[in-house]
Amino acid sequence: MKPVIGVPLRYEHIGEDERSVLYIGEKVRRCLQKAAGNVFVIVPVQDVCYIDTKGDEFLELTVEEKAMINKNLDLCDGLFLPGGTKFTPYDRYILECAIEKRIPTLAVCLSMQMMSCYLEDVKLEVNDTFINHNQEDDNLLIHKVRIDKDSKLYKILGKEEILVNSFHNYHAFSNNIYNSVAFSDDGIIEALEYPSDFFNIGVQWHPEISYDFDDNSKKIIDTFIKEALKRKLELREKQEV
Questions:
Q1: Calpha distance 184→234 (Å, rounded)
Q2: Distance of CA 149 to the CA centre of its chain
Q3: Half-sphere exposure of residue 220, counting CA atoms within 13 Å on the CB side?
Q4: Is the pLDDT of residue 118 over 90?
């Protein structure tokens, strides 16, 4: 039995005419399938061009649009929230629902930054540091991350310090809801956790990219998939009672 892992599509321009497209990264798809997850893509619901519309130009989600998102999420045992170039009201509502429904959630890069803005105004800042946070080679781990021993991430990895990859130009601030549980040596937040007993973790790096060659990345992804499967089995047991 495999858990269904929902992945919101991302937005980009492609081709000489810069057509807007929705996509799922190949590293995301392949990693989740290798980890025994069934990938289920979740599409945006508003009748706008998501890549061209600015953050303050989006209308509030309607009741009908929220219902469409909820129907998709009811099919998911876990949620993988990918990186990208922007997040929208659609993405923020998915995170809100994931918390309400207690769906195991792993967010990476931009989506971790979205967690830092949960229920708050967007507050991100351009990196200005001695550490390279935007590498070019996918096959490298380039800087250290220090992990709080009193965290779920530490329980998963059993380490206070690891090496990670890095592909971001902006960084997040802490908020009043998520706990900041890992930092790079320049003080930039590298991991956030929702204070609960279910899996809701964001990391600034990309474990899906380094899944094949980094044991720590594999542990994070595999633990996420196990939590999604656990939820699937628990819901099935309740339905059978």
A1: 37
A2: 22
A3: 29
A4: no
